[in-house]
Write a structure and sequence with these properties.
It is a multi-pass membrane protein. The chain has eight helices and no strands. With 120 residues, it is mainly α. It has two domains: 54 residues, no CATH class; 57 residues, no CATH class.
């Protein structure tokens, strides 16, 4: 999944996926540190994957599916329905992801949300 998101890595997608929000934001605003950091990340993905595996809890909510739903259907709230957050899913559906700000919030916090949900 990380390599698939790396294709969009110049906007930081793979960094958000691995829970590296600060560098994800930097990558987003600098086009992957002017594409140089994006290419270097191709070799750093295995280490980022190991770190994320240690940090986040597995469970019934699958990280990969949630990230795919957020990345491609986030404005419709489908990832929120998948996580069992029906009210906010409907809210996202009616407001196009709370006018985009909710989707940005989820890019920054999705791993924590899933880990918390899986912990329960």
């Amino acid at each position: 999944m990380g390599y698939l998101l790396w294709i969009f890595g110049f906007i930081g997608a793979h960094r958000f996926y691995y829970g590296r929000q600060i560098t994800g934001i930097i990558w987003f605003f600098t086009l992957g540190l002017f594409f140089i950091g994006w290419i270097i990340d191709l070799f750093l993905i295995p280490g980022m994957s190991r770190d994320a595996d240690r940090r986040y809890q597995d469970g019934p909510v699958d990280y990969n599916l949630a990230w795919i739903l957020l990345t491609f259907l986030g404005v419709f709230g489908i990832h929120r329905f998948y996580m069992g957050k029906i009210f906010t899913g409907l809210l996202y559906l009616l407001t196009l992801g709370l006018f985009g700000f909710g989707v940005l919030y989820d890019f920054l916090t999705l791993n924590g949300q899933i880990s918390e949900k899986n912990h329960r």
